[in-house]
Write a structure and sequence with these properties.
It is a single chain. This protein is of the alpha+beta class. The chain has a single domain (14-161), classed as Transcription Regulator spoIIAA. 20% of the residues lie in helices and 32% in strands. The protein contains four helices and ten strands. The strands form three sheets. The chain has a four-stranded mixed beta sheet, with helices on one face. A four-stranded antiparallel beta sheet has the order 6-5-10-9, with no helix packed on it. The longest helix is centred in the middle third of the chain and has 14 residues, at 57-70. Bound molecules: zinc ion. Zinc ion binds next to loops.
Length: 162
C-alpha cells in the first residue's frame, strides 16, 4: 500500500458486509470508525471479528464507546481473535457487559507430538463452564492426527466466562 505507514499484516481498518454479517478487518486503531454499525438496522447486529489484527488504546476507547452506544441492542460477536479475548479478560467494562454476545472465538492449541501451534476456532457452546472453571474441547492435530489440548490455562484464557 503506497503512502501508508501500515505494511504487511498491519492492514488499515475497514468494514465489509456479506449477507447479514458485518466483518471488521485490520487494526482497531486511530482509523477505527464504527458509526456505520451503530446506524445499521440489523437485528441482531452480527459482527465477525476474525480478521482483526491488533488494537491500541485509541481503538480500545472507540470500541468502548461503541458498546455503550449499542446499549442492550441484540448482538452477536463471532470469531473473536486472541487480542480481543485478552482485552475482554482484562478490561471487560470495554464490552459493556456484552460477553454474552460472544458466539465463537479463537484459542491457541498445542500439539505435544509435533509442536504444531494453531489458533483454532471454538464455538461458545463447546466450552463447559462450571463452578470448577472452564473446560475446552480437545482437537485433532491436522499435521499428525494426535489429539491436542489448549496451549494455555483455560481458566485464564476464558476468564471472561467465569
Ligand atoms: Zn501434531
Amino acid at each position: 500500500m503506497k503512502g501508508s505507514r501500515y505494511t504487511g499484516v498491519m492492514a488499515a481498518f475497514h468494514l465489509t458486509k456479506t449477507k447479514d454479517v458485518h466483518y471488521l478487518h485490520g487494526g482497531l486503531t486511530e482509523a477505527l470508525d464504527l458509526s456505520p454499525l451503530v446506524a445499521a438496522a440489523d437485528v441482531p447486529l452480527k459482527l465477525n471479528l476474525g480478521a482483526v489484527t491488533q488494537i491500541n488504546s485509541v481503538g480500545t476507547r472507540t470500541l468502548g464507546q461503541f458498546f455503550k452506544d449499542l446499549g442492550a441492542r441484540p448482538l452477536e460477536l463471532h470469531e473473536l481473535p486472541g487480542v480481543l479475548v485478552e482485552l475482554l479478560n482484562v478490561f471487560p467494562q470495554v464490552f459493556n457487559g456484552r460477553q454474552d454476545a460472544v458466539q465463537s472465538l479463537y484459542a491457541p492449541y498445542l500439539c505435544d507430538s509435533c509442536q504444531e501451534k494453531p489458533e483454532l476456532l471454538l464455538r461458545r457452546q463447546e466450552l463447559k463452564v462450571t463452578t470448577r472453571g472452564v473446560t475446552a474441547p480437545l482437537r485433532t492435530c491436522r499435521r499428525c492426527a494426535t489429539p491436542m489440548a489448549l496451549a494455555v490455562e483455560p481458566d485464564d484464557y476464558f476468564l471472561f466466562l467465569l
